[in-house]
Specification:
Order of helices and strands: HEHEEHEEEEHEEEHEE
Helix content: 25-40%
Number of helices: 5
Oligomer: single chain
Strand content: 25-35%
Structural class: alpha/beta
Number of domains: 1
Number of strands: 12
Radius of gyration: 21 Å
Distance between the termini: 61 Å
């Protein structure tokens, strides 16, 4: 009987410890200094530290202006997955851009991702129409870029695709006058894939380059199954 009571007491103490551990808050300080487009750097660090899906799009005329970001927030293993905390942190992040000589951005949420996009608009706002397709992922992404280019007028090309298998066959249902961003989120962020992207101006004459990447949480003690031990290079 004593052994049974001791076991119950030990289990209760272990349960209390686990609950306390889950509720323990970690204060995080995110600092970016002397970096062109510091917002892009901060977004990437948040994604890889917390595992949040965040897309980032720049206007075509974005200049490489140095700036600084200093953001502090508190997170737990439970609140890390809370959309309210994510929105609060990202909203505060964008607020730090106010008054700086840099493009203005807005925050929206769609397709299971957070989207940081220019206030002045983006090619991925363009409504597109695509027929139903059963093709490799890479072909679908190139077809989407071609349709955005056709409808918007400014070239959009597919760039790096870190961690994605472009040969994987996928099915894209027909879309009619749907924002390209919504279609892209459906293509890249549907089970078992979890991916985001960046969109940036490049070259002369100017064009947009769409770079997609798998979302890996590389900080903390959790990595998705199959994730590399070190963060992949590139976008």
């Amino acid at each position: 009987m004593m052994t049974t009571k001791s076991g119950i007491r030990a289990a209760a103490l272990l349960g209390a410890w686990l609950v306390g551990g889950a509720a323990w808050g970690e204060e995080v300080r995110l600092t970016v200094k002397d970096t062109p487009q510091p917002l892009a750097t901060a977004v990437k660090r948040l994604e890889t530290r917390e595992g949040w899906g965040i897309t980032y799009e720049e206007p075509l005329s974005a200049s490489a202006t140095d700036g600084a970001i200093d953001l502090t927030y508190t997170v737990t293993e439970v609140t890390r997955k809370d959309a309210k905390l994510q929105e609060q942190v990202l909203t505060r992040l964008l607020a730090q851009q106010e008054g700086q000589a840099s493009p203005r951005f807005r925050l929206t949420s769609a397709g299971g991702l957070w989207h940081i996009t220019p206030v002045q608009g983006s090619p991925l706002d363009t409504p597109i129409t695509l027929p139903r397709q059963e093709r490799p992922l890479g072909e679908v992404l190139r077809a989407l870029c071609a349709e955005v280019t056709k409808q918007g007028g400014t070239p959009v090309e597919l760039g790096s695709t870190t961690g994605l298998r472009l040969e994987t066959p996928i099915t894209l249902e027909a879309t009619t006058q749907e924002p390209a961003r919504t279609v892209l989120a459906r293509v890249l962020n549907s089970a078992p894939r979890r991916a985001a992207w960046t969109l940036r101006g490049q070259g002369t004459p100017k064009k947009y380059v769409l770079s997609a990447h798998r979302i890996f949480r590389t900080a903390g003690d959790t990595l998705p199954e199959g994730a590399p031990k070190q963060p992949p290079s590139g976008d």
